[in-house]
Design goal:
- Helix content is about 30%, strand content about 25%.
- Helix 4 runs antiparallel to helix 7.
- It starts with a helix and ends in a 13-residue tail after the last helix.
- The chain has 7 helices and 16 strands.
- It is globular, with a radius of gyration of 18 Å.
- The chain is α+β, with helices and mostly antiparallel strands.
């Protein structure tokens, strides 16, 4: 079986190459924006071009790989499954906000073993394999504030999809977050948010209805940096096995005690999930 470090090298090459493609469209006023599910869910030509570049690199380096991309769905039938989000944070990208990333992860036997999140604007390359997590070659440690009154929380909540069910409860929970935590922010990218926690720049992040291409790489990076990654469903915390396939997540720095966020996760994860993704098995 191909080694974790070699898979990470492939992911790195693919992400760097796709980042160059995506940068051609960043802050380009001629970029056309299309709606997918609705006007909250958009795509650009550069999402598709960047994903095609990732697929080209992976196919050249490891022919026959299974690839699940946000834009192109499944292809291939190999032993390694790749999860690809060519531009995580498309809404930011489309408006010229410099908070987006290329995300590539490799999984073997249902578990992620390598992942890369590349922010080409800031030139930040987050990566992890079996040896640990790194940012631009330097070790990452998910250390930060562990009590609410000192903590910065990146809350991708409530999003429009969070207001379909338990709307009043979601808004009340957000008010509690603002009152109980030092700072609450929304960066518009799950991958960047999780990597900020992995770097200790923020102390927690959570969101609902994530897709595996959003979280497979950054969740692995957070865990390899010593942070904590939990997923939830039907009102309970779920097992850690193949947790990149679970839809609702909560990541923290090591040693954090954020009971309010755990309560929000348990309550909001009881709702129906609005969207589905292909079964990777």
């Amino acid at each position: 079986m191909i080694a974790s470090a070699e898979l990470m090298d492939i992911a790195r090459c693919a992400a760097l190459s796709a980042g160059k493609v995506a940068l051609q469209g960043f802050r380009n006023h001629n970029v056309e924006i299309e709606e997918k599910a609705d006007f909250h869910d958009i795509v650009t030509a550069y999402d598709r071009k960047a994903e095609a570049e990732v697929r080209t690199v992976i196919d050249a380096r490891l022919p026959g790989s299974r690839i699940l991309g946000e834009e192109g769905g499944f292809s291939g039938d190999g032993e390694v499954t790749w999860y690809v989000d060519p531009i995580d944070g498309t809404a930011n990208f489309a408006r010229g906000i410099a908070l987006w990333a290329v995300v590539v992860a490799a999984a073997v036997d249902g578990e992620v073993v390598a992942g890369v999140v590349y922010d080409p604007v800031a030139e930040q390359l987050f990566e992890a394999d079996e040896r640990g997590a790194r940012l631009n070659g330097r070790p990452l440690l998910a250390r930060g504030c562990t009590v609410p009154e000192q903590a910065t929380v990146i809350a991708s909540f409530p999003l429009p999809r969070d207001l379909v069910h338990y709307s009043a409860e979601a808004l009340a929970a957000y008010a509690q977050l603002e009152l109980g935590y030092s700072a609450v922010r929304d960066l518009g990218s799950s991958a960047i948010s999780l990597c900020h926690v992995a770097a200790g720049w923020a102390d927690a992040t959570f969101a609902f209805e994530a897709n595996p291409w959003d979280v497979a790489a950054p969740a692995f990076i957070l865990k390899q940096a010593g942070g904590v990654y939990r997923t939830y469903g039907e009102g309970r915390q779920l097992p850690s096995v193949s947790d990149h396939l679970n839809r609702h997540y909560f990541g923290t720095v090591a040693g954090a005690d954020f009971a309010l966020i755990d309560q929000i996760m348990r309550f909001q994860s009881r709702r129906p999930v609005n969207a589905t993704v292909p079964d990777p098995t």
